[in-house]
Design brief:
Helix content is 38%, strand content 17%. The protein is of the alpha/beta class. Helix 2 packs parallel to helix 3. The longest helix has 19 residues.
Length: 197
């Protein structure tokens, strides 16, 4: 059994443009929280991704990369990576980089997210909620298994010739979890793909 904590790194939003003192302090405190979790022997620390003024982490891999430099043993995970509105190649590359920085401690928890602000922010249609996630999860899993890929899908531009995805992680493969919560279909999807949830 593993024990860990996760956070969405909530912060009281400052509704004045250009004033980020609270967010700056929250990020500094967050790195200290992760460092302390490692020092007391917790197994995993997860960071949720949000793109709202009340949460400070919109790029979990960036913060986890910083945490990798001040920790020794704790696994560093997203909790959740909003895969539907991100690019699977970039997600893999970012977390492979965290894995390299941490010496093999990165994990991805891929999900659709509990808020919908990323859809209009990144130019996606909410009507494509399920299709985006399904296709991008397939691609992420394919990249995790294969260094060189070709890809044809409907929701993301194709990769028409075999191309490598780099860097590769320290671990043979990145641990990829399926973040579930809203529907029974999410648990069914995790089971059918053999993914932890």
């Amino acid at each position: 059994m593993e024990l860990g904590v996760y956070t969405f790194a909530d912060v009281e939003p400052e509704h004045v443009s250009g004033k980020a003192a609270k967010a700056h302090q929250r990020i500094k405190d967050l790195i200290e929280e992760i460092k302390l979790a490692d020092e007391v022997g917790l197994d995993v620390f997860g960071l949720g991704e949000h793109h709202r003024p009340d949460f400070v982490v919109s790029a979990p891999a960036v913060v986890l990369g910083a945490a990798a430099m001040v920790t020794k043993k704790i696994k560093l995970a997203s909790a959740v990576t909003v895969l539907s509105t991100d690019d699977p190649v970039r997600v893999f590359e970012s977390f492979a980089t965290v894995d390299l920085l941490s010496g093999g401690r990165a994990e991805i928890m891929a999900g659709r997210g509990s808020f919908i602000e990323t859809y209009p922010l990144f130019g996606y249609e909410l009507n494509d909620y399920d299709a985006l996630f399904s296709e991008k999860l397939e691609m992420l899993l394919h990249i995790n298994e294969n260094e060189v890929i070709s890809w044809k899908g409907k929701m993301r531009p194709s990769i028409n010739k075999a191309m490598g995805v780099y860097p590769r992680p320290v671990q043979e493969k990145l641990p990829i979890w399926l973040a579930v919560g809203g529907t029974p279909n999410s648990a069914i999807r995790a089971g059918s793909k053999g993914l932890p949830m």
